[in-house]
Design brief:
Elements (H helix, E strand, L loop, with lengths): L1 H24 L14 H4 L2 H13 L14 H6 L4 E4 L7 H6 L8 H26 L5 H26 L22 H14 L12 H14 L3 H8 L34 E5 L35 E4 L1 H5 L3 E2 L2 E2 L35 H4 E2 L20 H4 L3 E2 L13 E2 L7 E2 L3 E5 H14 L3 H17 L25
Antiparallel strand pairs: 1-3, 2-10, 4-5, 6-7, 8-9
Helix pairs in contact: 3-6, 3-7, 6-7, 7-8, 8-9, 9-10, 9-14, 10-14, 14-15
């Protein structure tokens, strides 16, 4: 027994000497690469940089909430008065105070949107910082990747500027320690990013959805327009109206049917200048358009409907009224809300109650944007009214209609693997060619070229006039301006 103990003691002492000797010679056994992470060496290769860049693009979907996507359905449509939050008053009640411009500083949805946009900035900055360290990627690829990253950073900062106004500006050189003021004007930085993108992006790209030169020109023009720099904006739009191309090289053009600009089967079309990309059927809903997953007709009574949840983003009565026409042209601003011009609705009526669709002239785009009682709702049949509305007294009688999947497209235009079928494959066009034409029209009018502006507006109206709803009982009328109206900005 004693002999065995001595042998074991000798073995342990020998092992200790070996370990001490090993430790004194090298620390390599302590240098274990963290699992689930990549080194800067891996990330500064071409495939590494492309992967980080795609992550910056993916943030366009929002990623962390119902109100964070590039569609801005709440931050633009609802806050601008074109829609009500909808649903029940107590559902996502923090959104009520935002809609009523009585927001509190601890509002979770404000923090989510703010954080989502800065996540996009951070991812864009990561691309630029890594690109500066790369020693293996060609100069041409580094320039293109940096230009795409700066385009994306410009987009995220533009969204921050238009929603939150002055916010801290950080770029890829920030040390993450030095305090950053929040009172800087972001526009000069945004302009610089898009100017770099214009100068360095290729006209065509190998993948749909990537920013290209024409998209950068369009976005820079939009940035100028928002600042009232109309001559500068016109200079940008002049370069792409009629001649700009998509990332795949297709010349910009309006789709013949307005409705198709919001259908997944027409994603990345000739009308798409820059869009956040969505896909269905990829194994989970993370690649689908989830930011508008709540914005579908609600409930289970009545005829089959898309989504089934949750009754948010209900178009306002004022938006419906604004489509009223006289002689094919819009009414003077706000006169559409007068009792004699307001569009008749089924508010207060059950689906079984009789209802007659308003018979006065109206722009057909109303029924591509808004679900109204007894008007065909895509290919789902006539909208039944009350049975598809979650809480009519709270949100009104209308349903959203853009970005909705078709019944014939179930399983292709939407993802059926989530908690709701409302995750769609519909891209969100951050800039459409129709937007370019209308922005160019505003710039022309503001620099004194009213007729040129009206001609551009008429291009958009000509497409609208032929985009009718088959089987609709509505009285559609949409004409073109025969000349310059007394107030061309009201066109």
């Amino acid at each position: 027994m004693m002999k065995t103990f001595k042998i074991m003691k000798l073995m342990l002492m020998t092992m200790a000497v070996v370990i001490i000797s090993t430790v004194s010679c090298t620390d390599e056994f302590l240098e274990v690469a963290p699992s689930g992470s990549l080194s800067s060496t891996e990330l500064t290769t071409l495939s590494g940089l492309e992967g980080v860049l795609i992550a910056a693009y993916s943030q366009l979907l929002g990623r962390n909430g119902f109100y964070t996507g590039s569609d801005n359905w709440f931050w633009g449509t609802v806050m601008g008065g074109d829609a009500n939050k909808g649903t029940d008053a107590g559902d996502q009640s923090q959104m009520n105070e935002i809609q009523y411009y009585a927001v509190q500083t601890n509002n979770a949805s404000v923090l989510q949107k703010y954080g989502s946009l800065y996540e996009g900035v951070a991812r864009s900055n990561a691309v630029l910082a890594l690109a500066a360290l790369s020693e293996t990627v060609s100069a041409d690829d580094l320039t293109r990747i940096s230009a795409e990253a700066r385009f994306l950073r410009g987009h995220y900062y533009f969204a921050l500027k238009t929603i939150f106004d002055d916010t801290p500006y950080v770029d890829e050189n920030w040390d993450e320690v030095t305090p950053v003021p929040n009172n800087q004007d972001l526009f000069p930085f945004i302009e610089a990013d898009f100017q770099f993108a214009v100068a360095n992006l290729p006209e065509t790209q190998g993948d749909a959805g990537r920013a290209n030169k024409s998209a950068a020109i369009a976005y820079l023009g939009k940035v100028f327009l928002h600042q009232g720099k109309f001559s500068d904006a016109k200079g940008q739009f002049d370069q792409i109206v009629g001649t700009g191309v998509t990332a795949s090289g297709e010349t910009y053009a309006l789709l013949p049917n307005y409705a198709n600009a919001f259908r997944s089967t027409f994603d990345n079309s000739s009308e798409s200048v820059f869009a956040s990309q969505a896909a269905a059927g990829t194994g989970n809903v993370n690649n689908a358009n989830g930011a508008m997953v709540l914005n579908f007709p609600h409930g289970s009574t009545g005829p089959p409907r898309p989504g089934g949840c949750c009754g948010f983003n209900q178009p306002s009565q004022e938006l419906v009224n604004s489509f009223r026409t006289n002689g094919g042209l819009p009414l003077a601003e706000n006169t559409w809300n007068s009792p004699s011009e307001a569009v008749a609705s089924d508010v207060g009526l059950q689906s079984a109650d009789p209802f007659t669709v308003d018979s006065k002239p109206i722009d057909p785009r109303v029924d591509h944007n808004i679900g109204r009682r007894d008007i065909p709702y895509l290919d789902w049949g006539p909208h039944p009214g009350f049975d598809w509305i979650r809480n009519q007294p709270n949100g009104g009688p209308y349903s959203p209609k853009k970005f909705i999947y078709y019944e014939a497209g179930i399983g292709v235009e939407n993802d059926v693997s989530g908690w709701t079928p409302g995750y769609t494959a519909v891209n969100v066009n951050i800039i459409r060619y129709a937007d370019v034409l209308l922005m160019a029209a505003e710039a022309e009018i503001m620099v004194g070229n009213a007729q040129a502006g009206i001609d551009l507006i008429n291009q958009v109206r000509a497409r609208a006039a032929t985009s009718l709803i088959p089987g609709s009982p509505a009285n559609y009328e949409c004409g073109q301006y025969p000349g310059v109206p007394a107030d061309p900005m009201a066109a």
